[in-house]
Predict the 3D structure of the following.
Amino acid sequence: MNQEILKKLEGLQTVETMQKELNLTKQSTINLISKLKKQGYLTIWLGGGNKKRMYKISQKKQRLRDPGMFDIINKYSPHMKLSEWYDHQVHGTYGPEEALIEALQTKSFRVISASMFLFNHITNWPKLYKIAKEKNCWQKVGALYDVAKMFFKVRKMPLKYRKQTYKNKQYLIRDYETKEKNFILIEKKWKVPIPFRMGDIHKVKYDNP
């Protein structure tokens, strides 16, 4: 990578400031961002939703990270892809089990929707259960699994993890109640309202972002 370019861009940048600094078209700037990220000179600093995305650029390569939540969900979600709105870095063992729990913690409608594909790649149910219990979200995992099972291919959850009964309600997304009749039994079993409509499921299955 040209060190003069890195020197000009070092620090926090947006697409617009990079475009102005280097006198590039928007598409050329986006291509440059992708190249800098792959080479380790750029990380996403913040942004997403209604916030302007910012990038941290360094003249020295930043430590390469292992695939994180966004990477793993995008790997297994065939159509609905997620844009990183923060730099989610992980180091060490991290797989679909960890990604699923962190997806639930985001309380993001889109992230939780796309994460349903992870249930076909769970290979360590005891590990998933342990992490979920530590985060007090096993009810949410169970409810999301039962929704995913209705529409997508999933790996079978061992029966022993489905036997518990629950009294207290938990939300996948706060204040989103169950509207679809198809999900009423799932809510009753897990005490977790299901925020999805059938149109939402269709987007997860078929639509590009």
Observations:
- The two ends are 31 Å apart (CA to CA).
- Residues 26-39 form the longest helix (14 residues).
- The chain has ten helices and three strands.
- The CA atoms of residues 19 and 94 lie 35 Å apart.
